[in-house]
Write a structure and sequence with these properties.
GO terms for molecular function: DNA-binding transcription factor activity; transcription cis-regulatory region binding. Keywords: DNA-binding. Helices cover about 75% and strands about 0% of the residues.
Amino acid sequence: MSRTKPTQPPATAATAATTRADANRRRILDVAFAELTRDPDASMDQIARAAGVVRRTVYGHFPSREALVSAILDEAVAAVTAAHSAAYAAYSGVDDPPRAVTAAMLGVWHVTDRYRLLLSLAQRAVTMEGIRERLAPVHAAGTEMLQRALDSGRFVSPLPARALVYALENIMFGLMAAVNDGVLEAEEGGRSAAITFLCSAGMPPSEATDLVAEVAAARVA
């Protein structure tokens, strides 16, 4: 006896409205990212016009400009977390903490490069403490990996692993600002950040440069 497959219930008006609202929110986020990248001082009115909606629609999803910037930052943090986790996972079977740290820095730079123009805006709208709270899982994984590098003797520093995470973070943020200000080429940023951090963690410059070149080559192979 054959069974008939249950049919899907027809979409209700409420479901259609939710889908439409989700699509509007996604469009507003995408347009806001583009507009704020082009003009960090873009107003909610400008964003609404660019998105093809009225200002009330934008405020219906994001009650303030700060809330909109915060939502974009949340997406950036999710992308950073995924890139960081993927890099560590790729080296999970290799006992080479400096290589894993280097891969994570290059992977994170690749992701954050598209968000770097919003960095100063995010730092105004969301405190650094708020940014660090969002990055807590990344910090925890980074601290563990840096501790392994210190324990193995590959890294030598007067700083504990937790403090080294702050140093790494500020090197990344600092070089993003340098790119924004035109004193460093964007394509050099990731490698420069990784080499700078490895040297600050006690690795000889030539060894740090070679390691970063190897990991970068493996990323594009």
